[in-house]
Amino acid sequence: MSGRKQFDISAALDQAMRVFWQRGYPDASLDALGSATGLGRGSLYGTFGNKETLFGKCLDRYASIYGAQYEQALAAHSGDPVRAVEAFFDVVLSRIADPSVPVGCLIAQSAAQLLTLKEENGMQVRGLLDVQRQRVRAALADSSADSRTLDELATFVVAINQSLAVLSRAGTPDAELRSVARLACTTVADTLARAASEDVGQG
């Protein structure tokens, strides 16, 4: 029975995550969450705690699903930071194009609504953005660029990722989103190439 209960809780959490993802935190009412999960208000509180706690669990769930995909994409091209960034954006664009999930990104949506979140949830969102930046920064590390340049590039890549999520929610066509990602990858490649050239010149 315990295995069955765990499965039900996991499925309900996925449904709640979709509500927050689609509507945003302020408009994800308890009625909407209850309808999506199949739980009454009392059961919702009993299973997950209050709305803030449930939202935090949904953020963790989202990060575990897509964070693992980002990690795999970036790590699959060790020694080739440009290809790693390209693979990262491939994952991002595949998620955006997936018709089975809401448009955009739960973390990007939550970051845009930061002022409406409880302090703990806001810190969690900022932390997840920082984890994403750290992942990208690690993938860029195998280059001759200085630390400041790599820090700036990592922040740039994360900023483009968040922008793609926002643009997708506004209905921007897939071709245009892919164009943005390509230009971002070109910027990363050009910046790293320039750094390598300067390093050779100084040597």
CATH-defined fold name: Tetracycline Repressor, domain 2
Following the backbone from N to C, one meets helices and strands in this order, namely HHHHHHHHH
Cα-to-Cα separation, first versus last residue:
67 Å
Q: Return Rg in Å.
A: 19 Å
The overall pLDDT average reads 92
Structural class: mainly alpha
Number of helices: 9
> From the coordinates shown, what is the CATH architecture?
Orthogonal Bundle
Which segments are poorly predicted (pLDDT under 50) over 5 or more consecutive residues?
1-7
At the first level of CATH, the class is: Mainly Alpha
Question: How does this structure look, described?
Answer:
- The chain is mostly helical and 203 residues long.
- The chain has a single domain (52-202), classed as Tetracycline Repressor, domain 2 (Orthogonal Bundle).
- It has 9 helices and no strands.
- It has helices at residues 2-23, 30-37, 41-48, 51-75, 81-97, 106-112, 119-140, 147-169, 174-202.
- α5 packs antiparallel against α9 (174-202).
- The chain starts with a helix and ends with a helix.
- Mean pLDDT is 92; it is low at 1-7.
